[in-house]
Amino acid sequence: MRLTSTIAALLMTTTSVFAQGLTDAERTDFRAEVRAYLLENPEVLMEAIGVLESRQAEAETTRDERLATLNADALVNDGFSYEGGNLDGDITIVEFIDYRCSFCRRAHPEVAELISSDGNIRIITKEFPILGEQSVLASQFAVATKIVAGDAAYKQVSDALMNLRSDVTPASLSSLASAFDLDTDAIFAEMESPAVQQVLANNRALGERMQISGTPTFVFGDQMVRGYVDLTQMRAIVEAERADG
Question: Does pTM surpass 0.90?
């Protein structure tokens, strides 16, 4: 609908330009001829929409590549974010996640399968809670777990939060910590700490710089992919990155 409106506005502007200097009658006739032609040849509009879509996609890809390059250090070397898979892998994937995001949940097992089956990918997780208070609470808990108990515990908790189907509450988080034999009191005490708040603030700032407004968002090398992609698509992107590298 947006593209159709854009084409319509462009046609109105174009016909107005060509109609300058014409009499009112000539202008009416000219516009009627343009309308008749488009009604008889609607494929012209479809072709124009296709060209516009292609140009917009190219512009967005170029913009996203530039954003990934400008923010490369913050993406892959922030000194805190969880890193998994093959830490010496030839491809690095950065994923911005929200535990309450249904598409993040859908992508989660496919990302795990990609990392496991490929064997040469480093995965970096960015906590990016944008879907309300429960999302923030979940990310605070995950980040606090990493600070208190380390990477292995963080991975367990992160996976569990992604698969959690109940509300995120202090009670559900306490049960989750107990299930992994973690120090619940220490983690809860850490959740409001400046360190946890700084991690989430840094990720929010990075997301704003990269114009990220939804999850999941992936960065494969210097290619940003906004939204869910399935395992087959992810594998194709990885192979393309390897070919370009």
Answer: no
